[in-house]
Design a protein that fits this description.
The chain has 3 domains: 245 residues, 6 Propeller (Neuraminidase), CATH 2.120.10; 78 residues, no CATH class; 304 residues, Porin, CATH 2.40.160.50. It is built from 6 helices and 46 strands. It starts with a helix and ends with a strand.
């Protein structure tokens, strides 16, 4: 048969649907009347959209999420093979967001460059990119949004939709003179501009109906009485600014126009039968006819200069793909009008009933209005069609049909209308209401099972947030509690926090420890400044008190006070999948300092760097790399504890000794950094020092998709596997640090201060918890140790 088993199965399923589903049999799938160039099912993604075919028709630029992010690709229009990725989107400030739903891709007439509209930092911008060299030119304007760019045939101008103060218009930018002109400049919405071949006209879609000039807009026009949800095709003359209406429909949208080579016909998309299809209109005769009878919606048309190839996007089989239709103007259907879907048929019947009821209601309202001279509130003539909502059935009877005017008395607050009939304006008042109240149980390696109550309150706009966290144990001195307030309406998010933490440790000799209660309490002022979507700077100033008390003799103890400013630079464009991040990178650089202010204060300077990079190989297979390093200096410099994994259940620590000997150690452990993990194959505190470095490599893959146990009816889904290599070290002096050494001539080279561990593990969600099992071996460059088993909770790095 010359096809794969999957292709044969798909064809058989399609024929069965045509046999049993009448609507399916009357229409064609997109790949039945056009050539499929992309297939979202083969690469586990969903979007292949915004096609822009080159002037000669040999290449197509489009937007796809095939690599997790939305990127711009160039592919062959002949076989759909990817030529290159020309823009990496959603990763950097310049290409923060590609306008997926309002395609902004266009080719220069010579086919050497593309232009596209993107969100670039604080504003939208147009980027002109050389396809061969990938050199970029950024063009910005004083506009709030830029969409749907189209390059004129002479190569000198760009037409696009610009948004300013909530008003969208058609703009033209002259690439030679660097001038910008607003062509439409009115209150109506415009979209999809495309040049005519002679450059004298721009075709576009708009919701303006018959308001083709400002002179046509009456003085008493009110936008709230206007339906902006229906689009038609229009043209505008570049010189005279004269607008002409091309299509005329009452309920349906006509969008995405493209022009024939001779300028006598246009193609456009219309949903007049309930499905987006391609239609042709003869501009001389006014005759319209459908070119497709598609089973699924068609979007975003793009045509070659000679009109021989038409590219479009269609949503089919659970995703968007790019298709190519050859000789579209020569395509003929056996019907002049497409059969409407069931939805459209019922919609038209409902509209007829509504019109009849509206006419009756208008007569009654006119009669009632003639008997009244009272002041009516501003906007009282707004009509609301409640049939669009889920409770629509109760409003289908004439006795319950209503307008805001007829029910105004029951909906209006007393004394909220001024003398002119307008609603009074009141200042916004902040009123806090609870958003979240819940209790939570957690596990800590060193403290065991913990419980806490969490409460969050905010105002209606979310500009003010209050958090309360409590974990009461006997009395306040032995409990954890915190209060935080965040102020969020400005660019910088500000916060203030007060807290108290109590913990118990055995300090000193491992066989005869002294049990201490450590308390950390104080307050912090914090802020977060977003540079862009992917970068921010966090900063804070905290005042901390640390009290260490011997349980049996409370008079024996130690107290420290710390004033600590801190700053952290964060970059993150990573994407998460089921359990781990699978693509992108993230890193941070943190600095913490505390000056010597008195006899009870501690003095230090600590810096930490953490970098993580993720490579998605295919589907749920990925490779993760992490490198972190840090150091501390000063009179009370921090010592970093290296080894183990976080949230380790069956945990062990070197010499059964937790290296917290004073209030400074406890402060560093709680406020800056706990154990440096993961370093598998080793236990907690395998090494410690004022400096550290750790590298992790991990291959992550789906191990078992679905498994059902035999004796117990339990189903386990998506069990993930990992293969890892960890390498790290902690030390005090570079002079004495050695990665390898030879203990004797017979042993050979082995590791000394460098710790290496390798192994494999499993990840599974069980009863809402992410459980981890790792099996690791130490490696000293000459041999492997016995395996070490790690049972733990929580996500990986």
């Amino acid at each position: 048969l010359g096809m794969s088993l999957k292709e044969l199965s798909d064809r058989w399923m399609r024929e069965q649907k045509k046999l049993y589903w009448a609507d399916f049999a009357k229409r064609e799938a997109p790949d039945e009347f056009a050539k499929r160039l992309t297939d979202h099912t083969k690469r586990d993604h969903f979007y292949n959209t915004s096609p822009a075919i080159s002037p000669t028709g040999d290449k197509i630029a489009f937007i796809s999420d095939r690599d997790d992010y939305f990127d711009v690709f160039i592919m062959s229009a002949i076989d759909g093979k990817i030529i290159k990725k020309i823009v990496k989107g959603n990763r950097t400030k310049n290409f923060e967001e590609l306008h997926l739903l309002t395609p902004g891709l266009t080719w220069s007439p010579d086919g050497n460059k593309i232009a596209l509209a993107v969100k670039s930092g604080e504003r939208d911008a147009i980027f002109v990119i050389d396809v061969k060299t990938e050199k970029q030119q950024k063009i910005t304007f004083d506009l709030d949004g830029i969409f749907s760019v189209d390059w004129s045939r002479d190569g000198t101008k760009l037409a696009f939709v610009g948004l300013k103060h909530g008003q969208s218009d058609i703009y033209v930018y002259d690439l030679l003179n660097k001038t910008l002109v607003n062509l439409t400049d009115d209150i109506f919405s415009d979209a999809d501009p495309v040049w005519s071949h002679d450059g004298k006209l721009i075709y576009f879609s708009s919701d303006r109906k018959d308001f083709i000039s400002k002179d046509f807009i009456p003085q008493d026009f009110r936008m709230y009485n206007f339906d902006p949800n229906q689009y038609d095709i229009y043209s505008i003359d570049i010189e005279t600014r004269e607008i002409k209406r091309i299509t005329h429909t009452d309920y349906w949208d006509e969008t995405s126009p493209v022009v024939s080579p001779d300028g006598k016909k246009i193609l456009f998309i219309s949903d007049r039968n309930g499905i987006n299809n391609i239609y042709e209109k003869d501009l001389e005769t006014g005759i319209e006819r459908p070119l497709t009878n598609s089973l699924s919606g068609i979007y975003q048309l793009s045509i070659t200069y000679d009109g021989s190839k038409l590219a479009f996007s269609s949503f089919y089989n659970g995703g968007f793909d790019i298709f190519l239709l050859r000789q579209p103007f020569e395509r003929k259907l056996n019907v002049q009008e497409l059969e409407p879907t069931v939805f459209v048929t019922e919609f038209l019947k409902e509209k007829e009933r509504e019109l009849a009821k509206a006419k009756k209601l208008e007569q009654e309202t006119t009669k009632a209005g003639s008997d009244s001279t009272s002041i009516q509130p501003y906007g009282s003539d707004i009509k609301v069609n409640l049939r669009s909502y889920i409770f629509a059935d109760i409003f289908r009877h004439d006795s319950l049909a209503m307008s805001i005017k007829t029910r105004l008395d029951s909906l209006t607050l007393p004394d909220n209308i001024d003398e002119s009939g307008r609603y009074k304006v009141y200042r916004y008042k902040v009123n806090f209401t609870p958003d979240l109240i819940y209790t939570n149980a957690s596990y800590s390696t060193f403290y065991g099972v913990l419980g806490e109550a969490f409460m969050m309150f905010s105002d209606m706009l979310g500009n003010h947030q209050i958090y309360l966290i409590t974990s009461l144990v006997f009395d306040l001195k032995n409990s954890d509690y915190a209060f935080a307030y965040f102020y969020l309406p400005k660019r910088i998010n500000w916060g203030i926090e007060a807290f108290h933490i109590a913990r118990f440790f055995g300090v000193g000799d491992q066989y005869y420890p002294l049990y201490y209660r450590y308390r950390l309490y104080g307050g912090t002022l914090m802020g977060s400044y977003p540079i862009d979507k992917f970068r921010r700077i966090d900063f804070g100033l905290g005042y901390y008190n640390v009290v260490g008390e011997y349980i049996d003799f409370p008079e024996i103890g130690e107290r420290s006070s710390i004033l600590m400013p801190s700053v952290t630079y964060v970059h993150d464009n990573s994407l998460w999948r089921y359990i781990f991040p699978s693509n992108g990178e993230r890193y941070y650089i943190s600095l913490y300092a505390s000056p010597k202010l008195g006899s009870s204060s501690i003095q230090f300077l600590t810096g930490i760097f953490d970098y993580r990079k993720y490579f998605r190989l295919w589907s749920d297979y990925s490779f993760a790399f992490r490198f972190t390093a840090g150091g501390s200096t000063g009179k009370n410099k921090q010592r970093f504890m290296l080894g183990g994994v976080d949230a380790w259940i069956n945990w062990a620590i070197k010499n059964d000794y937790i290296p917290i000997e004073n209030t400074a150690d406890f402060f560093f452990f709680e406020a800056i950094s706990g154990p440096i993990v993961p370093l598998r194959g080793y236990v907690y505190n395998e090494q410690n020092g004022s400096k550290f470095a750790l590298m992790n490599l991990e291959f992550r893959f789906p191990l078992i998709r679905y498994f059902i146990g035999g004796a117990l009816p339990l189903a386990f889904r998506n069990i993930m596997g990992v293969i890892f290599l960890d390498m790290g070290s902690a030390w005090d002096s570079w002079r004495s640090w050695r990665a390898f050494y030879e203990p004797d001539p017979f042993t050979g080279t082995v590791t000394k201060d460098l710790l290496i561990g390798t192994g494999y593990g499993f990840r599974i969600y069980l009863f809402g918890l992410l459980l981890r099992l790792d099996i690791a071996w130490r490696f000293n460059w000459g041999s492997f140790s016995k395996p070490v088993y790690y049972f733990s909770f929580g996500p990986d790095y």
